[in-house]
Amino acid sequence: MSTQASTPKKERHGMIRVFKNCWFLARYAFRYTPSYIFVVLCEAIGRAGDHILGVLFLKYLFDAIERGAPYTHVLAAVAIVGGYSILFELFNKWRLEVYNPRTNLKLHEGMQNELYRRARALDLACYDDPAFYDDFVWAMREADGRLIKIFSDLSLFLNRIICSAVVLGLLVVMEPVVAAVLLVTVLLGLWLKAVINRLCFERTRDLTLVGRKLSYIGRIFYMPDHAKELRLGGMAETLIDRYGEATEEKIGIIRKYENRLMWLLLASHLLTTTMPQAGVVGYLVVRYVTDPTLTLGTLSASITATFKLYWTLDDIGNYLTKFNEHSLYIEKFKRFLDYEPSVRGELTDVPPIEHLAVRDVTFRYPFTEGGEPTLRRISLNIRRGEKIAFVGYNGAGKTTLIKLLLRLYDPTEGEILINGRSLRDLDPEAYRRAVGVVFQDYKVFAATVAENVLAGDFTPDREQTVTDALRAASLEEKVASLPKGIATPLTREFDKKGTGLSGGEAQKVAIARAFARVLDREGGLLIMDEPSSALDPIAEYELNRSIMENAADRTVIFISHRLSTTRMADRIYMFDGGTLIESGSHDELMAQNGKYAEMYRVQAKKYREEW
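and the corresponding structure tokens:
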């Protein structure tokens, strides 16, 4: 089995590619907030005008003082420049305080909704690929914020381009030597910053994994789910030790890059800040003293233009490196968005499941070291209405086979057939709607009972489905006793009046969710992985009886380590080391006196001793 989550082909990361990547992400802004680019352009042009007027006004002011111009002319110039600045600031305040917050929320909603849908469509194998998973987490965490940052940087970048072009033109006219010196030093500075940016990206990349370790340990100490375990064992000290080790690893990575970055940053500062400023100012002062044709206005305007041009050209370099950084991120984002699931199919009209066949199936998890198969050459047949049990010790391959039956993965070799047709032909989403499943690591969501049972929105016409599913899971009486019945919020994540359930009750909610999928569907399949693991033996017996009664005409596959449950199965499949070693009814397997019989007797003895 393969996925498209493999490492992409390396390409040269030039400016054309940077531009294409930034344009790729910018299209999302056009989709969700079309006016955003117009406002960005207005801000860029307006800010550039503010800088240009500053240079021209300073030249006019000093020249006017030198030649004794009427003060009314000076006041008029002051009024023009001041009025422009006030209007621009009013626009900018509206942009920052009114327009941007509203627009950013629209971008956030649009981007996150698309990312959530993409995340749901990913093959489960993507979570097995550490490199792809790191990119996935990064994309989810930064997508909308990165887009906002790109547009903010674009506004300032355009401003610097416009401003530097006009100021450079003014400076070429006033002092061409100064303009040439600044251009040379800034171009050299751009090259240095490109090197610095590459090193910073490599450092960030190396810090990502260790950052995840530190973040995980930090979460453990404030998450309620782990509070009891941390107080009852020695894991807290182990985690604290690992936090220290991860911190040392982080320090080592920082040391790896710090010397090179320090010298490069120092060289960049000397080249693009100290030398131009000291040299240019000194040159202009000498020119003013020795050249009587140089006016005070030209001197002051040249010095101001020098600093503005240096600053804008240098900032263009800063933004070019920022866009390069954005582009490197967008590469990860595009990889996530461009991913095409390998688990897919065309047939959306899924018929009632009359017959399920597993034919010579071998499976190995992708990205596992050594690539050893988890399942080897499994073959079995299940007909509609049969109650099937998968048994075996931990790691035998039972849950892995369930994942294949749900098309969370496809077999590495062999095939699974539904009514004689390959499961690969069926659309995964459509097929899974015909299957109710309870996972061993079931989850209860911060939503109402009804929404948890339906695994989605509740509408009044689905009330009977919810009630029937809760009855099948032996939870109807408990829910009826809750303050708001099926409308009661579960967990206190968002509602202080929410209800917390015991482990067994939460598991029954997951069982009800599985029943809700198949109760109204003919020929549905019910899969239960350890459905009674959180229950005591008496509650387990009652639940199993209820499940069998409510699933009488439906196909049921269940995994259970408690073999008292498997006695109700029509057929039992015994797994060991990824292979199928025994099959038959309980009585048949006991008569064979093999692995199943041995496991059953051990458990029966244990129960007799405990009871």
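(Above: one complete record from the training split.) Strands lie at 355-363, 375-383, 387-391, 413-418, 421-422, 435-438, 525-529, 555-559, 571-576, 579-584.
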